[in-house]
Amino acid sequence: MGPKKKQSKAEKERLKKEEAERKAKEEEEAILKLAQEEAERRKKERIDAEKRRKQEEEEHQIWSAHKAELDVILHQQDLWLKKYRNEQKKGKKWKQYTKCSGLPDPTISKEMNTYINLLLEDNKRDDIKSVLKEASNILLLVEELDDVLCELPEQESAVRHECVATIEQLHSLLQKKLDTATYNLLLEASTRADSESQNFHFYTASDKIRICLWGNIGKNPRLKSHTFREIGCSFEIPKALTAADVAVQVTSSTHDHYSHKARSYQLRRKKTAEKPASDSVICNSLLGSGTDSANQVNDATAMTDVNSNKSPAVSAANMSREKSTSSIQDGVESRIADDSLDGSIEHSLLITDAKDG
């Protein structure tokens, strides 16, 4: 094979020029291809955007039509509800007027303050029968205020706070009257002692409250427990208290005294932002949601209020009643209807001359 022929300078320049022209042509074709693809992409996006806009307009028209129908229905329901509430209010006032019970109107603060002050100053009717009779009237007023709270709209916060404050005053009044009646009974414990056990046992009831009272008069060291058969409640007596002046009180009430104190008691609708006109149809509406949490009850020692009248248990302590009220702490913003309890049972121990609680 002969030696390779050496290219001339002109030939090299020609090949170099052809290579440059080829690369320029390829770059130009690539740019044209990219421009064509970009144009097709933009065209497709315009078509898709137009389809989406038309679909959203159709959906918004459907949503607007449904919303208009719903607004009409809601307006009619609001009118009917206002009319119903007004009729109920008038009916209750007329029923209360014709009953001639002498009870005040719970929605009028002036009448309620007068009623509460008169009962606080009345020291002539502190026997247990009179107190139980008045307790039924007090709980009736509380139930009427509960009904008012259920019907109040959220905007009337001032009226709501006033009703809640009145309920608290009535509860405090009822507790004070029951304490006074219990104290008067204990003053007569020795004369009412049972001939067999030499201890004091007392039971009485009204349509809303049942009271059981036991006093350790005999101081029998072999005494370990006692049962209130009237309500099916038993309690054990610590050995250190068998020789002490001890009294045990169990109060059962059909009224729920504590649920209204929970922050989850009042249902609140979750606030949602209004839907713009250009948005798509609303498919999911928030009707108010929240996480549910169990109520935590911190049991006190001298007085324990339990919201159940089926399985009562008695706690004992040597503390004042002011420090013995059970407190309910609830950190949730919603409430389940099943959490509402049927009644409340209040257990208390009135202990004197006892070193150990």
Give a quick summary of the entry.
With 357 residues, the protein is of the alpha+beta class. It is built from 4 helices and 9 strands, in the order ααααβββββββββ. Strand 3 and strand 4 (233-236) form a beta hairpin.
Number of helices in the DSSP assignment: 4
Distance between the termini: 122 Å
Mean pLDDT: 74
Computed Rg: 40 Å
H-E string: HHHHEEEEEEEEE
Major sheet characteristics: 5 strands, antiparallel
**Shape estimate:** elongated
Structural class: alpha+beta
Helix proportion? 40-55%
Q: What low-confidence regions span 5 or more consecutive residues with pLDDT below 50?
A: 273-357
Strand content is: 5-15%
Give the strand tally.
9
Task: Please give the order of strands in the largest beta sheet.
Answer: 1-2-5-9-7
What attributes does this structure have?
357 residues; alpha+beta; 5-stranded antiparallel sheet; two-stranded antiparallel ribbon; 45% helix; 14% strand
Structure in words:
- The protein contains four helices and nine strands.
- The protein is of the alpha+beta class and 357 residues long.
- Helix 2 (109-121) runs parallel beside helix 4 (157-187) and helix 3 runs antiparallel to helix 4.
- The radius of gyration is 40 Å and the shape is elongated.
- The chain starts with 8 loop residues before the first helix and ends in a 5-residue tail after the last strand.
